[in-house]
Amino acid sequence: MSPMHAADTTSAVAPEDAERPVVLTAHGVTKTFGTNIVLDGLDLTVRKGETVCLLGPSGSGKSTFLRCLNWLERPDSGTILLSGERVGLRAGGNTPMSDRELAAIRTRIGMVFQHFALWPHLTVLQNVMEAPVHVLKRGREEARAEAEALLERVGLAEKKDQFPSRLSGGQKQRVGIARALAMQPDLLLFDEPTSALDPELVGEVLAVMKDLASEGRTMVVVTHEMAFARDVASRVIFLDGGRIVESGEPEAFFGAPKTDRARQFLQRYSKG
Amino acid sequence: MSPMHAADTTSAVAPEDAERPVVLTAHGVTKTFGTNIVLDGLDLTVRKGETVCLLGPSGSGKSTFLRCLNWLERPDSGTILLSGERVGLRAGGNTPMSDRELAAIRTRIGMVFQHFALWPHLTVLQNVMEAPVHVLKRGREEARAEAEALLERVGLAEKKDQFPSRLSGGQKQRVGIARALAMQPDLLLFDEPTSALDPELVGEVLAVMKDLASEGRTMVVVTHEMAFARDVASRVIFLDGGRIVESGEPEAFFGAPKTDRARQFLQRYSKG
Amino acid sequence: MNGFAIVWENRQELFAGFLNTVLLSISAAVISVILGVFVAAALMSRGRILPRLAGLYVDTMRCVPFLLFAYFIYFGLPSAGLRLTNWSSGLLALTLYNIAYMAELLRAAWKGLPSETIEAGRAFGFHGAGLIRRIILPPVFFSAVPMIGNQTIQIVKDSAFLTIITVAELTHAATSIQTTYFVPFASFVSAIFLYWILCMTIELGVAAVGHVAHARR
Amino acid sequence: MTWTDVLSIVQGALFTVSLSLASIVLGLPLGLGVALIRWSRMPIFNGLAMAYVSIVRASPAVTLALLIFFALPTVGLSLDPISAAILTLTLSTGAFNAEIWRGVLLSFPKDQLDAAAAFGMRRGQRFRRIVLPQIIHSALPALVSEMTLQIKSSPAVAVIGIVDITRAAMRVGARTYDPLPPFAVALVLYSFIVWIFVMAQRRIERRREAELAAAA
Amino acid sequence: NDLDAVKAAGTLNVATEDDFHPFEFVEDGKPTGYDTELLALVTADAPFKVNQQIMPWAGILPGVTTGKYDMAVTAVLVTDERKTTLDFAGPVAESTTYYMTKVGNDAIKSASDLNGKTVGIQAGSAMLTQFKAFDEKLKADGGTGVKEIVEYQSYPEAYQDLAIGRTDAVINTQINLQAVANEKSDVFAVGEAVSDPVYIAWATAKGNEKLVEFMNGKLMEARKDGKMYELQKKWFGTTFESMPEAIK
Ligand SMILES: Nc1ncnc2c1ncn2[C@@H]1O[C@H](COP(=O)(O)OP(=O)(O)OP(=O)(O)O)[C@@H](O)[C@H]1O
Ligand SMILES: Nc1ncnc2c1ncn2[C@@H]1O[C@H](COP(=O)(O)OP(=O)(O)OP(=O)(O)O)[C@@H](O)[C@H]1O
Ligand SMILES: [Mg+2]
Ligand SMILES: [Mg+2]
Ligand SMILES: O=S(=O)([O-])[O-]
């Protein structure tokens, strides 16, 4: 376990969970765009099987933080460890990883995007098989079988030969989830997976995500769906202005937010 | 008053309202795309000061119907009357109106779009002044004064010289509303004015709309915001498969929907 | 004598040629953009005949080589009773030819305009020419400016072909100096340099408009 | 003008077509390579690529041909007219292609690239498997436009002794003192060659549109 | 050593223009005309092969000055400007610059009638230099000078414009003009001289003395046995028998 753990402000987990192995550690992550300090020294520890929900107003840095976790955005300082291994920088020094090393570690972190980011020139099945076959070099047949099983699981078996443009938003996002699962990642990142969906289609995606949470996947979820966070999160983290303002179990956070900022934020959501 | 009124299935208005003049009558509006019957003989009467909310699942024809009202979509059959005058077809026969005639009648119907549809090459103030000056041929100074007053009213006085690209979604939509009001239209149409907005920004737009409703504007609003419909609508119309499945006062509709389809629809929204 | 010294002695001829190139290509660009708008509008119109006619014109021009087109304008039109000076033939050829290219790229930008923007125009009572002028064209221009700049560079290069119909533009001047004094490289390098300055100016102009456009996207 | 004259112009057409095809085939990857250098912002190469595109786009092809054919030997690279002509046309069309490829690369949706990176694809893989199959379609119209312009600018290489359509026509005109008829033949031949490209583009576009309609 | 280099390589590279009838032009895809036949004559028994590249005038000069071609075997008019950058072999023809009008143009009966007229000449040509001198003379004699000199890249376009009537006269060598007028006697008529005679010769880059010497020898042989005059008769309809042995 990393020595930074002691400094982690977000490790207020229930005692029985403290035994579980740590999957992700972020420590002192900062990021500035021009003069705009977007992330101001964030710490986060995620243990196996946890579902951590990141909440916060628009522009508070949620997406940026999530993208720092798999180094899609390069933080200015701070460290990210995946199961104890450095992400983005080589162990020991501050040399950035090569394209190859970065690619290797990213295969272990699945990501689901707000606007799906499916590859439009590939069919649904090909979207799911693409990275397993061409990145992980799994056998084509094995990858196909697994992809079909995953599509079955998200309820899209019969759409496998369609192109993404034919699908509704909810279906697209379920393909996005299957695509991430196909990598058998240690950690799943979700960036507002339902906010580009029609209200009616949100439910089907949230149902799949609830399922994943209940089977013990390790997930970090940026979301505006308060009901989902309340029901599913093992921990809620509230960001504002690039800092963690409050964090804790969902009952506590939604029931009796400790800070004014969180209270204000929750109020805005409850009115229409 | 038009002779079709007797056949109007949606005129279940409270007795005192029956005195108010009719602003809009739609009768037997049908529309087919290819083999897909999108509108299947819709009737609607809107009286001065009413706020009619159109609800319904995705694809039920809400947008298409709204667009038929100002002839942006040409219905296959049916008539639309604005304060008793034909829209789209010349009085008497079935000859389509010329571009010029259509343009003239459209100036009396304001419209607010889902994706704002502001004109990107004009500043906020110019967006609001554009049609009054160049279509209605109002004096530039008079139009400017009115535009500034309207921007003040939607809380955007200090943004008047910005280009739309610099505004948040909520601000854009408030400009869209000011732009529609500047025409001093008899009727305002809204097509999901908040569904492209971040959850946090929805409130500011709904607040303006509530305000308009309470000052007695005549409005037809397509929306997914159930709370808004419940609080503000004078009448709710529920569409499904291009037909009006249920309509009535919001308390009745939300409290005890009469049809299974509406009940099912409302259930989906409450979970989530 | 050093080739560049000879070119420098004849700089007046070279600059006169450069001035002609600038005048010809800029006026051709401006006129063809303006008239290209009308052809683009015809291409986008709803009728049956008008868009086809416009399409025929555009594709014909795209198929015809400019050199031969200019040749026919200059030498062929007189037999049809229309006699123009070399300068006006050159300008006419450049313009007629590039209206087609400009129209095609304006059409692409027009097609790419969000349909809601235009619909909002209609919903607010704009129609016909007013709709095109006030609602459609400004954003079309902003998005087409890089392509218009590109095509203007093509016009600059096409103008070099006008030497065949005796228009004293930059290539004409450079050739004339090289064959009088036998200094081919000095004169061509000087010509390229001047062409490059003109093209850079156009690119800078495009960038400047792009900057203005950026605020509105 | 005799039938032999017409035949000589048709022979010129064969030259025009083969030179154009050669430079189109070479110019497409050249332009793509240059665009990729600019896209990935490789430090020094980026500057070189920018200079190449800027200068070559500004040079009339005639001048470029003269410089390549006659100036390169002074630095020890002597080419025969055909190679020099192909090099000229390739360099020139490559510069324009580079701008076209760069344009479509710049407008390629960033989140698709992010997704590829997030799934552990390396740079080359992202380009080959995700970007290329898609930008080929969006670049097509502009690339074909450039091809038509480049076929039409091929008479420029006549100056180094290549007898293309235009030069063949001029030779006939110089002998008969009546240039209009051979030029009319040349005009028809050019238009036909370019028309094939324009039609091919329209066909590919229509097929693609049908595919998309079927998939949408 | 220049000639030695050619002998060592076994090939003499020459460039010839393709549209300067009757000196050189292309017929049925083959180069022909006076210079081409004369070249074949004088190199028939040379100790090297000849590689003749046919190309436009605009490409010949750069080719010769950079040494890509050993010699321009094409009708180059010898002028003082050109002597500073080129060497010339012995003259192959004599040329006087003339004007040509449309048949029946009564407004131009003699060279002095060119005052106030529009004339066409090839850009950068020796004829242009000569004609500018003639224009000065017209003015010195109290005339207005010509109205305008239109410069063409090559002569076919100049003849075309004369036929259409955009210009009143075309200025070129008498030989060229005569050939045009013979071909189109119903359209064009050759007028009077506007210059003193000058020589036409083959050119090399500076520093090819031995090659020039070699060519001079061969050309003199062709004159001595009368073969050059036969060719002149064939292509120009006249002979030039009083030319010097070499260009100085
Ligand atoms: N590439 C970038 N360049 C400059 N500024 C950026 C960039 N990406 C993000 N930002 C800025 O960083 C801040 C945080 O952005 P971020 O997208 O992380 O917020 P967020 O919490 O995800 O918001 P939202 O709920 O709207 O998605 C914002 O002020 C944003 O403008
Ligand atoms: N231009 C068109 N061409 C073909 N079909 C169309 C067109 N516009 C709409 N449709 C179809 O008409 C039906 C109704 O569409 P409409 O947009 O009116 O629904 P809606 O109720 O507004 O849905 P949403 O809530 O998703 O906006 C849909 O099936 C849609 O696919
Ligand atoms: Mg975000
Ligand atoms: Mg809709
Ligand atoms: O004299 S040049 O260098 O221009 O040939």
Automatic annotation (TrEMBL), chains A, B:
GO molecular function: ABC-type amino acid transporter activity; ATP binding; ATP hydrolysis activity
PROSITE patterns in the cross-refs: ABC_TRANSPORTER_1 (PS00211), ABC_TRANSPORTER_2 (PS50893)
Family according to the record: Belongs to the ABC transporter superfamily.
Coiled-coil positions: 133-160
Superkingdom assignment: Bacteria
Statement: the UniProt record of this protein carries the keyword Coiled coil: yes
ABC transporter domain ranges (all copies): 24-266
Protein name: Octopine permease ATP-binding protein P
Taxonomic lineage of the native organism: Bacteria, Pseudomonadati, Pseudomonadota, Alphaproteobacteria, Hyphomicrobiales
Any one GO cellular component localisation term in the record: plasma membrane
Keyword Coiled coil in record: yes
Compartment list: Cell membrane
Keyword field: ATP-binding, Cell membrane, Coiled coil, Membrane, Nucleotide-binding, Transport
From TrEMBL, chain C:
Sequence intervals crossing the membrane: 22-44, 56-77, 89-110, 131-149, 192-213
Transmembrane among keywords: yes
A GO biological-process term: amino acid transport
Keyword Transmembrane helix appears in the UniProt entry: yes
Gene Ontology annotations for the cellular component aspect, listed alphabetically: ATP-binding cassette (ABC) transporter complex
Domain ABC transmembrane type-1: 18-206
CDD domains: TM_PBP2
Annotated source species: Hartmannibacter diazotrophicus
InterPro entries, per the entry: AA_ABC_transptr_permease_3TM, ArtM/GltK/GlnP/TcyL/YhdX-like, MetI-like, MetI-like_sf
Subcellular location: Cell inner membrane; Cell membrane
PANTHER family: L-CYSTINE TRANSPORT SYSTEM PERMEASE PROTEIN TCYL, MEMBRANE COMPONENT OF AMINO ACID ABC TRANSPORTER
Pfam families recorded: BPD_transp_1
Membrane topology note: Multi-pass membrane protein
Example GO molecular function: transmembrane transporter activity
Keyword field: Amino-acid transport, Cell membrane, Membrane, Transmembrane, Transmembrane helix, Transport
Top-level division of the source organism's lineage: Bacteria
Family: Belongs to the binding-protein-dependent transport system permease family. HisMQ subfamily.
Protein name: Putative glutamine ABC transporter permease protein GlnM
Automatic annotation (TrEMBL), chain D:
Annotated ABC transmembrane type-1 domain residues: 13-198
Classification via InterPro entries: AA_ABC_transptr_permease_3TM (IPR010065), ArtM/GltK/GlnP/TcyL/YhdX-like (IPR043429), MetI-like (IPR000515), MetI-like_sf (IPR035906)
GO cellular component: ATP-binding cassette (ABC) transporter complex
Chief site of localization: membrane
Membrane-topology annotation of the record: Multi-pass membrane protein
GO MF: L-cystine transmembrane transporter activity
Location in the cell: Cell inner membrane; Cell membrane
Domain of life: Bacteria
Keywords, sorted A to Z: Amino-acid transport, Cell membrane, Membrane, Transmembrane, Transmembrane helix, Transport
Chain segments annotated as transmembrane: 12-37, 49-72, 180-198
Record bears the keyword 4Fe-4S: no
Keyword Transmembrane belongs to the record: yes
NCBIfam families per UniProt: HEQRo_perm_3TM
Family to which the UniProt record says this protein belongs: Belongs to the binding-protein-dependent transport system permease family. HisMQ subfamily.
PANTHER family noted in UniProt: L-CYSTINE TRANSPORT SYSTEM PERMEASE PROTEIN TCYL, MEMBRANE COMPONENT OF AMINO ACID ABC TRANSPORTER
Protein name as it appears in the record: Arginine transport system permease protein ArtQ
Lineage, uppermost ranks: Bacteria, Pseudomonadati, Pseudomonadota, Alphaproteobacteria, Hyphomicrobiales
